[in-house]
UniProtKB/TrEMBL annotation, chain A:
One of its GO terms (cellular component) is plasma membrane. The lineage of its organism: Bacteria, Pseudomonadati, Bacteroidota, Sphingobacteriia, Sphingobacteriales. InterPro entries: AAA+_ATPase, ABC_transporter-like_ATP-bd, ABC_transporter-like_CS, ABC_transpr_LolD-like, P-loop_NTPase. The keyword ATP-binding applies. SUPFAM superfamilies: P-loop containing nucleoside triphosphate hydrolases. Keywords: ATP-binding, Nucleotide-binding. This is Putative ABC transport system ATP-binding protein. One of its GO terms (molecular function) is ATP hydrolysis activity. It holds the Pfam family ABC_tran. Residues 2-249 form the ABC transporter domain.
UniProtKB/TrEMBL annotation, chain B:
The keyword Cell membrane applies. One of its GO terms (molecular function) is transmembrane transporter activity. It is found in: Cell membrane. This is Putative ABC transport system permease protein. It comes from the Bacteria. InterPro entries: ABC_transp_permease (IPR001851). GO terms for cellular component: plasma membrane. Its main location: membrane. PANTHER family: ABC TRANSPORTER PERMEASE PROTEIN YPHD-RELATED-RELATED, BRANCHED-CHAIN AMINO ACID TRANSPORT SYSTEM, PERMEASE PROTEIN.
Length: 249, 288
């Protein structure tokens, strides 16, 4: 589904503050694979994810999604495949817009935003029904501005928004980093359910080694812009949680 | 009383500008100073075309296109050349001064005894009343168009662009393009105010745009204060409050003159009034 070939990313090239964020990564992510990426700060995880999303372009190498070369495609043109959950809940939702407006935009992620009014009663009911699956009681608050909700609620809604329109790839960039343990748990479980139900190909970046252990069917460890370890589903299943801690020892 | 009616009519003329500032400042979160230039541009295009006896509708369309071009230019400078929006606006505004004076060929163009929007139909024998009805209808139509636009999928995407850029990009919207369109729309509306004012006052002057942005800002800030005060989320109500803000602003200026304040001090009063409105919510927050 996602094919990354010899990708390099250097920030501030030829300046004193040059950073080699990603140095020659080859990575093939198969359809319906749920890849977990762990690694220390500065190991290039987020840069790699940003390059898949299209918000950062590589200096060299190619990236293709679903067989199409997307290396030069900006993020807004990759939205027909990719939905994204950001580390900061504020980045994935628009605070001043109502929950309903946010969902409307998400429901036309792959389509043109035209000059017709898309929010009608049918759509409202559809959103309510979807939101009620979270069991957070938010289905009666769909006219409220997104900004009135907590970070956990917003992350959970961002996840739901990602499957409002056809979605093939789900990118999760430390989605629970800003959340309390209970909300984090709800968000991660919602993510896993959606990934299963919609058969998504997904990438999760996390610093939470428990999550890295519990979720996903492939795990890679990154260090200094390279892939240090790469364990497939079978190898991951035999992995012990303490082994993960040892990786960072 | 006529004095206050004039203020009301001016307020209505400025409501298009207020809607324009509402779009650039509140919806897109971009401080746009192109306003001073695009407002005068609207008035200049109006005067030149009316002098040539062009029909009103054609004049209006030309005014909007001219304003939109000015706004789009600011948008392109801001997004494509990555120049601070404030500076981009100032650059375009400065350049527009030369454009305006070249178009007019003179610094002042009177429109006395020429057919205008306000002589188009005769609803009332009283000139001011006639103007009031025509203006009201005009403003209502514009407000409905903008309100509808903001309700459409495109409009929701516009509102999201100023709110969470990362989100709306990940949902497939080219934010640069959106900002250019937004600034074009805002300045088209601003130019419409120039169109209305020049016909209302019967002349276009090259310096009529100086400091006009404060009228738009003041109107929007009055509206915003009310919006926050009453926790309004409805788009329609917000737009109506912006119009109300534009009228209140002119009435306050009229009162200032009426109680005998030296007209030379009018700009100080304007600035002080806007400051008061801006600081009002903060002052009341402290008490709460």
């Amino acid at each position: 589904m996602i094919d990354i070939k010899k990708v390099h990313k250097i920030f501030n090239q030829d300046k004193p503050n040059q950073v080699n964020a990603v140095s020659g990564i080859d990575l093939n992510i198969k359809t319906e694979e749920f890849l977990v990426i762990v690694g220390a700060n500065g190991s290039g995880k987020t840069t790699l994810l940003d390059m898949v999303a299209g918000s950062v372009f590589p200096n060299s190498g190619t990236i293709s999604i679903d067989g199409q070369d997307v290396t030069k495609l900006p993020d807004y043109d990759r939205s027909k495949w990719i939905a994204r959950v950001f580390q900061n809940p504020l980045s994935g939702t628009a605070s001043d817009l109502s929950i309903l407006d946010n969902f409307r935009l998400a429901s036309i992620r792959t389509r043109k935003k035209g000059l017709s009014i898309g929010i009608n009663d049918t759509f409202k009911n559809q959103v309510k029904e979807k939101i009620s699956t979270l069991g957070m009681g938010l289905e009666n608050k769909i006219e409220q501005p997104m900004g009135t909700l907590s970070g956990g609620q917003r992350q959970a809604l961002t996840l739901l928004m990602s499957v409002m329109d056809s979605c093939k790839v789900l990118l999760l960039d430390e989605p629970t980093a800003a959340l309390d343990p209970r909300s984090a748990d709800i968000v991660m479980r919602t993510a896993e359910e959606l990934i299963k139900d919609y058969r998504l190909t997904s990438i999760l970046i996390t610093h939470n080694l428990k999550d890295a252990f519990n979720y996903g069917n492939r795990i890679i460890l990154m260090g200094e812009g390279k892939i240090v370890k790469d364990l497939d589903a079978q190898q991951k299943s035999t992995l012990k949680q303490t082994d993960l801690y040892d990786w960072f020892g | 009383m006529d004095f206050y009616l004039t203020a009301l009519l001016q307020g209505l003329c400025f409501s298009a500008l207020a809607l324009g500032i509402y779009i650039s400042m509140k919806i897109f979160n971009i401080p746009d100073i192109t306003t001073d230039g695009s407002y005068t541009l609207g008035a200049v295009v109006t005067a030149v075309l009316i002098k040539q006896n062009e029909p009103t509708y054609l004049t209006l369309i030309s005014v909007m296109v001219a304003g939109a071009l000015a706004g789009a230019l600011t948008g392109i400078i801001h997004t494509k050349l990555k120049i601070n929006a404030l500076l981009a606006g100032i650059l375009v505004m400065t350049a527009l001064y030369s454009v305006n004076i070249s178009l007019m060929g003179t610094s002042n163009l009177p429109l006395i005894n020429l057919p205008t929007l306000f002589t188009l139909v005769n609803i009332s024998a009283d000139l001011n009343h006639n103007t009031f009805w025509i203006l009201s209808l005009f403003v209502i139509i514009i407000t409905i168009i903008i309100g509808f636009l903001l309700k459409t999928d495109f409009g929701v995407a516009m509102r999201a662009t100023g709110n969470s850029e990362s989100m709306i990009r990940s949902l497939g919207v080219n934010t640069d393009r959106m900002k250019i369109i937004g600034l074009a729309l805002a300045n088209a509306l601003t130019a419409v105010s120039g169109y209305l004012i020049s016909q209302f006052q019967g002349f276009t002057d090259i310096s009529m745009g100086i400091g006009v942005v404060i009228i738009g800002l003041g109107s929007v800030i009055i509206a915003e204060t009310l919006i926050n005060w009453f926790k309004i989320t409805s788009i329609w109500l917000s737009l109506v409050l912006v119009l109300t803000g534009a009228v209140i602003f002119q009435i306050v200026l009229a009162v200032t003159l009426d109680i005998g304040v030296n007209p030379n001090l009018l700009k100080v009063v304007t600035a002080a009034f806007v400051l008061l409105i801006v600081s009002l919510p903060r002052l009341s927050f402290k008490k709460g």
